[in-house]
Each structure stands twice: as C-alpha cells, then as structure tokens.
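User: Here's a structure from my thesis project, written as structure tokens. My advisor, Dr. K., wants to see whether a designed sequence matches the one we expressed. Can you design one independently, without my sequence as a hint?
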C-alpha cells in the first residue's frame, strides 16, 4: 500500500524539477511548495497587469513586445502636445523623464540633418523650439521692449533680482567679454536704446531724475546738497568745463534748459524778474530795504559794479533795460555830493576831449589836469569803481601816457557805450517837469549834472561823426 502511494508523489516531484528552469525565467511563473498530501502541480500564473504572453508549450516565454518606431515617436509627440497645453511651451527640461530626453534627441538629430522633413514640420506645427536659448532670449527682449514703452528707457534695475534685471545684467557681461550670441542681438538691443555700460545706465537714470526736477521746479538748478542728483549735476558741469562730456550728452542736457554755470543761471533768472518788474513799474528801481530776493539781487549788482567785478556782458544787459547804477535816494549826503562832483569833472573832460582831440590835460594847467592824474592813480591802486572806469574807457581815456601823447590807434572811443551813458544820464521829461521851487537841492543838482554829462557826450559824438573818424566799438 505504501509503495502505491509513494510512487505518484515521486512522479510529481520529478515533474516539478523538470519544469522549474523554464518557469523561473519569468517572474509570472512560480512553483508552489510541495507538501505531503497536497495536490501540487507545477503551474504558471499570468499577472493581470502584465502584457507578457504565455510561453508556447515546450519553450521559454516571449520578451516584451516593442512598439513600432513610428508609433513610439507619435506617442512622444502626443505627450509633448499635452506638456505644451499645460506649460505654454515645448521646452521640456533635459532631465525631466523620457520626454525631456526625447525632446533633446529631436534637436540633436535635426542639427545633424538626420530628422525627416515630415517630422520637422510636425514639430514646427506644435510650436517646437529648436533653440530654447534663443527662444528665451527673444522672450526677454520682448519684455525689455515693453519696459521701454512703459518707462521711456531700458534702464531696468539690476539690483532687485528680477528675471528681466538679471537678463539685462547678463547681456552687458557677455558684451564686455565678447561672448554675446550674435551680432543680431547687439543690433536689436541698440535699436531700442539699450546701453552696454553700467555707467551709461546710471547717467540715464540721473538724467531722468533731472527731467522730473525740471517739471516740478521749472528749472535745472539743483542744489549741490541734494542727495544724489546734486553731486551728479555738479559733475556734469565739471566735465563740460574740462571738455570731457560727449556732444550727445551736452545736447540732451541743453535740450531741457540745463545751465553749465549754476550762478550764471541764477543771475539770468533774477534778470528776467527785473525785466518783469520794469514792465509793471516802468523802472528798475527795486526797493532794496524790504528783504525781497530781487531787491537783494539789485543791491548786489550795484556793489559788484562799483568793485569792478561785473562782466561787460552783464553791464550791457542791465543798462539795456534802463538799470541805474546810482540812485540819489539811496546815498547819504556825502557820497551823493562826491559822485556829482566826479560827474561834473567828467563832463569837463569830455568837453576838453571834444576841443583838443585827447584827454591828456596838462597837469599844471588847472584843477581838471590834477583830476585826470588822480583818476590814473586811483585806477592803478585798484580802488576805482567800475562805473567810473567804464565812463572813462568809453571816451578813449588813456590810463598810461607815453611822452605825453594820446595814441588814437590804441585808445578809441566806444560809440555804443557813450550812447547808453547819454540815455542813463539824460533826465527824463517827468523828472524835469517835477522840478519846482520846492524841490530839494539834490534833485535839482542831479538834473543839472545829468544834463551836463549827456550834452557833453552828445557834442563829442557829433564832432567825431562830422569829421568822419573811423570809430569802432569795443
């Protein structure tokens, strides 16, 4: 009985041993544990989710069935389309799974000329980017163009860490190292006013600040104490004086009314105020005792004129609007008398010039000769006021005499200046009509002296014009 039972079990074991090598090659097959009394037969179970096929009888199982090449390519293209719908582009990162490797492989094959025209067209049809770096560059360029449209320049702040700022910084760095991708990129950037030098960027930024200052204050006279704009403005003026500022920047600054001399600009601003005052009041006699800025400026002009520190151009401008260097009401009695005495002597000298043709009055002749010598000595010491110097210069007064002779070729009269002095000194009809018995001695003397100076100068002009003297202005 035992022999009959053992024989079938032995057959089962031998059968299991025979089938084990074939089944062990595939994880889908297994040999159940054989125990006493079990109904163990070698079986092969197919996993539900596996695509493997059962091995044919008497042979090993087949390998995984591969998809045809064209079908696999189409499948990846469908994945790429889904990726594009989700991300808005086809630039799958190289290391992002099989799709990333496939995308990179397509670019490589196209670069080598091994990708068919049909596949190139299909990839183009879904917006495939054959050069992702170029695509990124163009996208940033479009951002920069939009920035320029909004702000008027390409001066993106590179310190905030924004993507566009970082990109702008990379462009400048690549350009400085000669590594910019193409000449087209250079031309495109320059076409929208992009600056390669970071210092150019700072200049543009400060220039924009100056334009804003002008819009707010009406001028470009920034105080040097201003935080950043003030020192920048001073630097532009210094560079201009040294001839180190480009013509293009000079033109741009001047286009917004920038003055290269700050004090000159302030002077002209006050001069414009004086003209407005004259149009309203009919004269330039601004009250200097009220603390008004214009009054203070007018007083400063008279002081500068007396000290001889005022330029000829400024003197001419002020006199052209009827500005008076001396106002009798603003002088004390002593100074007023001294000025009128000086002008009386001046009128005598002009009459002498008209009669003799020069100002070389003999020293021993009379008091006029002594006065002439005194004028030369006063000027030599540097203590003569500017207006007195101008009065004498305009008639060709010789400050240094050689052998007691006047040299017409060197000391010529200034007809224009003489005409202006006549206009200044000649009393107005209103002033003459206001003189009455009740008038003060000062007003009467002012009118008399003014008429004497104006008449003497007019007589001199008439003489030189009648003799056909070749008169040139200084």
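Assistant: Designed independently from the structure alone:
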């Amino acid at each position: 009985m035992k022999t009959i039972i053992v024989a079938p079990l032995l057959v089962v074991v031998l059968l299991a041993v025979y089938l084990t090598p074939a089944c062990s090659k595939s994880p889908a097959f297994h040999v159940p544990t054989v125990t006493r009394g079990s109904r163990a037969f070698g079986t092969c179970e197919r996993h539900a989710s596996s695509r493997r096929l059962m091995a044919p009888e008497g042979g090993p199982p087949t390998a995984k069935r591969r998809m045809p090449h064209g079908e696999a390519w189409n499948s990846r293209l469908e994945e790429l389309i889904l990726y594009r719908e989700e991300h808005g582009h086809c630039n799958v990162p190289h290391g992002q799974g099989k799709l990333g490797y496939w995308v990179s492989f397509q670019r490589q094959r196209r670069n080598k000329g091994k990708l068919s025209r049909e596949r190139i067209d299909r990839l183009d049809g879904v917006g495939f980017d054959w050069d992702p770096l170029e695509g990124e560059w163009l996208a940033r360029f479009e951002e920069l163009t939009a920035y320029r449209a909004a702000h008027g320049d390409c001066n993106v702040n590179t310190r905030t860490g924004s993507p566009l700022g970082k990109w702008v910084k990379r462009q400048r760095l690549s350009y400085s190292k000669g590594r910019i991708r193409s000449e087209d990129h250079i031309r495109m950037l320059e076409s929208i006013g992009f600056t390669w030098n970071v210092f150019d960027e700072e200049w543009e930024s400060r220039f924009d600040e100056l334009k804003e200052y002008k819009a707010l204050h009406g001028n470009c006279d920034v105080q040097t104490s201003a935080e950043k704009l003030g020192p920048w403005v001073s630097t532009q003026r210094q560079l201009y004086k040294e001839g180190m500022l480009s013509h293009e920047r000079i033109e741009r600054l001047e286009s917004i009314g920038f003055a290269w001399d700050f004090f000159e600009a302030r002077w002209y601003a006050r001069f414009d105020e004086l003209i407005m005052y004259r149009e309203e009041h009919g004269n330039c006699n601004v009250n200097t005792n009220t603390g008004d800025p214009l009054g203070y400026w007018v007083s400063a002009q008279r002081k500068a004129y007396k000290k001889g520190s005022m330029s000829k151009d400024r003197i001419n401008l002020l006199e052209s609007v009827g500005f008076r260097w001396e106002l009798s009401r603003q002088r004390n009695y002593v100074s007023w008398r001294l000025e009128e005495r000086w002008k009386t002597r001046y009128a005598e000298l002009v009459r002498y010039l008209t009669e003799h043709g020069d100002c070389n009055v003999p020293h021993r002749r009379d008091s006029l000769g002594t006065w002439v010598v005194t004028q030369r000595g006063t000027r030599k010491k540097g203590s003569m006021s500017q207006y007195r110097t101008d009065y004498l210069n305009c008639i060709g007064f010789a400050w240094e005499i050689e052998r007691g002779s006047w040299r017409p070729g060197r000391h010529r009269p200034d007809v224009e200046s003489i005409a202006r002095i006549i206009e200044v000194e000649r009393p107005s009809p209103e002033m003459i009509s206001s003189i009455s018995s009740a008038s003060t001695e000062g007003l009467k003397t002012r009118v008399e002296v003014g008429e004497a100076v104006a008449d003497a100068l007019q007589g001199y002009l008439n003489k030189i014009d009648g003799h056909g003297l070749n008169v040139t202005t200084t």
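When you compare it with your expressed construct, this may help: The longest strand covers residues 29-30.
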